[in-house]
Specification:
CATH class of the largest domain: Alpha Beta
Shape: globular
Distance between the termini: 40 Å
Strand order of the largest sheet: 2-1-3-4-5
Strand content: 5-15%
Radius of gyration: 20 Å
Length: 352
């Protein structure tokens, strides 16, 4: 394992400055809000009865975050749409977000055209590319953050336009205090996760998890979204296989999968992401589950969210996972930004 806290080691493998992007997240979030508030939306966009957020990868995860965060605060259903197609129910009463940081995601472009054909009220979120061109061609609202970074590192640029759009349309109210709390938390926390802050939680979990396959379980919908984000960050940043699931669903199926041989299950390490807002029943369920399967893993680490509002608590877990996956990449001696396999796939698809 490389010493992932040393400046020279980080520079050797972090060729495109993923660390700088992580440390710059607070400024990104504030910039995203400022840019988003300047976008004017047609008044009739508020006359909708459902919301669809269409995207892939890092662009889609922000839709998951929004859906989970607003599930108890908004009266219309929110669906995150991944893929080439869209639900048949999309119509003129649907607010349809086309979320593609690059603007060239082929699945999202396909969904864009289908949503337009079905008369949806479309809002684009894209730094450039074909999505931006189509929004200009059809005179559709566009949130256009700065480009030039991996979508998974642009979580602020992709999430806050979605939230601000709903605020602007009067669908979400009295939320500015929670937004400020969240960004202030991120400002404090990125400093504590920096390389020079030795033995911080991200460092500790990197050392303990190194060499194992991560399993990430989330306690309910909100922490479950964060668990999925951890999984994708381990995949793209650390270049390791990882798996995620959510309580209580995993207790109805996956719990049985850990009855396999110990020489296999010991290759896994379990991270359990818990929310401060979890019910007593959820806490009891997690405890009993770990009593049943905990000894099957090489190790089990329980991490609880921080902050008052749900938005802050979700970002507290997301931020830790982002730094952990970065340090795991450096520890393994791989570039956290490079995604060679994905690029090869896209190139071959483009030629076919």
């Amino acid at each position: 394992m490389n010493d992932f806290t040393k400046t020279e080691t980080i520079k050797k493998f972090d060729r495109d400055n993923m660390l700088g992007l992580l440390l710059g997240l607070p400024a990104q979030c504030r910039n995203a809000l400022e840019l988003s508030r300047a976008v004017k939306l047609p008044k009739n966009f508020a006359r909708i009865n459902k919301i669809v957020i269409s995207g892939m990868g890092g662009s889609a995860v922000t839709g998951d975050i929004l859906r989970s965060f607003l599930s108890k605060r908004i009266r219309v259903p929110i669906l995150v749409n991944r893929g080439y197609t869209i639900p048949h129910f999309v119509d003129s009463s649907t607010l349809f977000f086309v979320n593609s940081y690059s603007g060239n995601t082929e699945e999202t472009l396909s969904a864009f055209e289908k949503a337009r054909a079905q008369g949806a009220k479309i809002i684009g979120v894209s730094s450039n590319g074909k999505v931006a061109k189509l929004c200009h061609r059809y005179s559709l609202p566009l949130y256009s953050p700065p480009g030039g970074q991996p979508p998974r590192s642009a979580i602020g640029y992709l999430f806050f336009p979605l939230l601000q759009a709903l605020i602007s349309l009067g669908m979400v109210r009295n939320i500015n205090g929670e937004i400020e709390e969240t960004i202030a938390y991120i400002e404090r926390k990125v400093k504590s996760y920096a390389p020079e802050r030795r033995n911080n939680l991200a460092h500790t979990l990197t050392r303990k998890g190194f060499g194992y396959i991560p399993i990430i379980y989330g306690s309910g919908e909100a922490a479950g979204v964060c668990a999925f984000r951890w999984k994708t960050q381990f995949n793209e940043n650390s270049k390791v296989t990882a798996f995620s699931n959510t309580f209580p669903e995993l207790d109805h199926n996956e719990i049985m999968g850990w009855e396999g041989p110990r020489d296999i299950t010991k290759k896994f390490v379990l991270f359990v992401l818990k929310d401060k807002g979890d019910s007593k029943r959820m806490e009891k369920r997690i405890k009993i589950t770990l009593d049943v399967i905990g000894k099957k893993f090489s190790a089990v680490y329980e991490i609880c969210s921080e902050g008052r509002s749900l938005l802050t608590r979700m970002f507290s877990l997301i931020l830790l996972g982002d730094f952990l996956s970065f340090y795991m990449a450096i520890a393994r001696g791989v570039d956290p930004t490079a995604i060679k396999g994905i690029n090869i796939l896209k190139e071959r698809l483009a030629k076919s």
